Amino acid sequence: MSLLSLFHSHTPPPSVGELIHWDESLLSVGNPVIDEEHRAIVECLNRVYADWMAADHRLNLEEELGKLSVVVETHFANEEDLMARRHCPTLPGHARDHRDMLAELHAIAKNVHALPQAKLEAQLLRFIRRLVMAHVLSWDMDARDYLRA
Ligand SMILES: [Fe+2]
Ligand SMILES: [Fe+2]
Asked: Which residues surround ligand 2, an ion (CB under 5 A)?
């Protein structure tokens, strides 16, 4: 089973060129601000994925990963701030997972020109799966009572 089919088996069927389909019922934490940030992250991931699939790569991947880092960093900070104000007991582990993911994303962005294409794709797919499935669908959903508006 490929990484992609494994990914898709846990999410609704995507549209053509869409790696992750935003599904309100699956991905919403009940807070419009946090949901919008998650949606912006998903859009950025879909944009990068669509460019991989295209015959001619139009995106500057380094630039896209830079934008993704900013969106993700801002989101993590906002989420942690909200959880801290609401005394969420899982915040320490949750924040650690945020930090680990940021380190992983920064390492990929740093090596974007050094890695062979196949290895870069594998690392990016692993990161995307981790961010969406292991984090948003797990850590964020588990903290929903502390994240909802
Ligand atoms: Fe989140
Ligand atoms: Fe989170």
From this structure: 79, 140
* This prediction's pTM: 0.85
Express each pLDDT in 75-90 by its tens digit: 999 999 999 999 999 9
Q: Which of 35, 45, 71, 42 is nearest to 144 (CA)?
A: 35
Q: Tell me the domains of the chain and their CATH numbers.
A: 31-147 (1.20.120)
Give distance in angstroms: CA of 58 to centre of ligand 2: 31
Q: Which residues have CB atoms below 5 A from the ion given as ligand 1?
A: 79, 140
Which residues are CB-neighbours of 125 under 8 A, at least 6 positions away? Answer: 3, 4, 7
Contact yes or no for 49/5 (Cβ under 8 A): no
C-alpha of residue 31 to centroid of ligand 2, in Å: 13
